[in-house]
User: Fold this.
Amino acid sequence: MSVDLISKLKSRGLIENITKVKELSKILLEKKIKVYCGFDPTADSLHVGHLLPLICLKRFLKNGHKLFILIGEGTGLIGDPSFKRKERKPNSVSYLNACSKKIENQLFNFFKKDKKFSNFKIVNNLNWYKNLYLLDFLSNIGKSFSVNSMINKEFVKKRIKRVDQGISFSEFSYNILQAYDYLYLHQRKGTVLQIGGSDQWGNISSGINLIKKITKKTVFGLTLPLLVSSNGLKFGKTENGTIWLDSKKTSSYKFYQFWINTSDHNLYDFLRKFTFLKSTEIDDFENKKNFKKYIFLAKKKLAENVTMLVHGKEKCDSAKRITHSIFFDNLEKMTEFDFSQLKQDGLPTVKLSKSDDLQQALVKSGLSSSRGQARNMILSNAVYVNHIKEKNVKYKFFCKDKIFGKYALLRRGKKSYCLLCWK
Assistant:
């Protein structure tokens, strides 16, 4: 049975801009198409800001369409200037190559469990740029671009107006290169739809226009919303940095916590955008949004579904286990891997020596400013070791306190935690 995929994407809030929507909808109902989306390897991991394009691609894959995901190792040497306030720092060939390999592996893991995985391919634009002749490119492709129209693109206009920064010719040419990527994949792979974030609309439309000029054929473009968090930061960035998809850079526990701490305002929108839950289930949660119990359950559902999607069941279970153990005063079920997640980036962590007592641990952890203050905290029944209240101001740590021989959870009051580690 054919699915009206465009209507489905719209209902989930996954479309910001789209070309020739009626024509594209009709084509998708009649046949399977080839879709492409590109990622420049300017870091060694994708982050949560890349999740919407990936989820949209997964929806196309689930409906039987073929995906080409482009790793922009060639264009990464220049860097996309779209809505950047200043020119990116150049990346070395070796750095981009290393990042490309890691991102390829990340993409493979993200899509490998899909039944239609055979319809998923990764391509690298360095493979066609490294043998490209400059004069041929300028005479065959460059002539199709009007400088007048290029300087009127919003991201270019903003940079030109900045006297202190401006825009280099190399970044100015990025738009042409991405358009050429679309032409190349259309002519050699048959792609007819490009997907990207809303900041890619100018680059995507250039590719559509180039294909029309060169081949006289109509292709399509679709962009997804560019999300900004409630504090005005680009989505996926926090006070402590970016939320990466690589669990070695952002632990699965911290990743889970990022989603469970979603604001009430964004919660139901995020459930529609970032999960594959049925709309009726999400509507049911939203209809009960005045009940705190259901808000918490909806946030838990969001965190579980996105963590499972990115990190798999084992790491999702670990994140859930840690969350329950810490906030519901029960450490018995935590594994050594769970503690390593906390040590990575889940909690403030401090290393102790064998001679450090409880007062010193409070000082080293930053939970108190001095031994005197630490003493008063203990006397006022505000200090817990592994969720057990400790009243002895002269308390020294025993082997029984060291879980797996090296970890202990130190708490001040109800919400201030630190992970203690012994050398």
The longest helix spans residues 292-327. The mean pLDDT is 90. DSSP finds 18 helices and 13 strands in the chain.
